[in-house]
Design goal:
This protein has 344 residues and is of the alpha/beta class. It is built from 14 helices and 12 strands. It folds into 2 domains: 40 residues, no CATH class; 215 residues, Alpha-Beta Complex (Spore Coat Polysaccharide Biosynthesis Protein SpsA, Chain A), CATH 3.90.550.
């Protein structure tokens, strides 16, 4: 892994030495075009920054069938904490969670706290059997434990089954713990999306398999939450150990809702990227500086699969008020060495 990273870094240095025209030429060479885009997207992966969210316009939606998706037996779930709230007419966040040590890490608690401050009730949907101490009971309005295979959609389905009044919520946020954040405030994101007329919205549009909104942060307004399409989708979700099945749920969800008569929107559509294939670069440090995108994927910090230049990330995070110790402590606990020194 280290050798691969250093080879990428060396290629970056060589390209920088030859200048911008050479770098642009390299984007047409299959074996090294990813490296060229790393340089181009270092500061900002967008060719333009939309002031407001953009309505999704999927004029041709491919036929979709959910069925059982080749899944096995459904997972079981158990409510481990319930404050007795009725979610009718409330804003609720469903936080899908998994941790290798079976705990709720401080970075996930920080995210939940910020959601509460933004007016959400927060339901923890965990694949771990969490011991709910007094602090967790105070922070989370409810918590479920579900066993068996499956990822986020399985966890969200079990919460919807455990608390039927969620289908009558004013707004439902589907989210997970796959990222650090929010970096700065969530307000700029909501300021850009609240004026947009739509039934649901997300943050990042992705072209993989079929255009869709990435499922790490999707907000469903009342019409979407109470819709037949939303219920049908989650009725069809099954547990599966196959990652491709879980990915299929994510890539189908957006167009399934639209085919059911709902309207969607996204903060950063494919049309605004320098190159749609590298939309994941929006998680890099350069774009965090703007304050419009408040998240950074855990994978970008722990693995850095795209060899994104992260040298100024500690200053960016500190400047926007995010406690970098949440990242370093998490990496240390799971036995990972970060590509960059956050501690000076």
């Amino acid at each position: 892994m280290k050798l691969k990273y250093y080879i990428k870094f060396l290629l970056i240095k060589i390209m920088l030495l030859f200048g911008k025209k050479f770098i642009k030429f390299c984007t047409y060479i299959p074996k090294i075009k990813t490296i060229a885009y790393i340089i181009i997207l270092k500061d900002n992966p967008l060719k333009e920054t939309p002031e407001l969210g953009t309505p999704l316009n999927y004029s041709e939606i491919k036929p979709m069938r959910l069925g059982d998706a080749g899944a096995g037996a459904d997972a079981k779930a158990r409510v481990v904490h319930d404050s007795g709230r009725n979610y009718l007419g409330r804003r609720v966040a469903l936080l899908a969670h998994y941790d290798p040590d079976g705990m709720v890490d401080p970075y996930a608690l920080y995210f939940a706290e910020r959601l509460k401050k933004s007016g959400y009730l927060v339901v923890l949907c965990s694949q771990n059997e969490i011991t709910m101490d007094e602090n967790l009971r105070e922070l989370f309005d409810a918590a479920i434990y579900r066993n068996g295979p499956g990822l986020d959609f399985t966890s969200w389905k079990k919460a919807l089954g455990a608390f039927p009044s969620l289908f009558e919520a004013e707004e439902l946020l589907l989210t997970n713990d796959s990222f650090f954040g929010p970096v700065g405030s969530l307000e700029p994101l909501y300021d850009a999306m609240n004026p947009v007329e739509c039934d649901f919205w997300g943050v990042v549009e992705n072209p993989m398999f079929r255009p869709h909104v990435q499922s790490f942060y999707i907000v469903l307004r009342k019409k979407a939450v109470t819709s037949k399409a939303f219920r049908e989708f989650f009725d069809s979700v099954r547990s599966s150990a196959k990652r491709r099945i879980s990915i299929r749920y994510e890539t189908i969800f957006t167009q399934w809702l639209i085919s059911g008569g709902l309207t969607g929107a996204v903060r950063f559509p494919l049309s605004c990227y320098v190159h749609p294939k590298y939309s994941n670069h929006i998680f890099s440090n350069g774009f965090l500086k703007t304050g419009q995108f408040p998240f950074i994927k855990r994978r970008m910090i722990i693995e850095n699969p795209y060899a994104v230049l992260l040298q100024d990330l500690p200053d960016v995070l500190s400047g926007r008020g995010y406690p970098v110790s949440l990242m370093t402590n998490y990496a240390r606990r799971i036995g990972k060495k970060l590509e960059i020194n956050f501690e000076g």
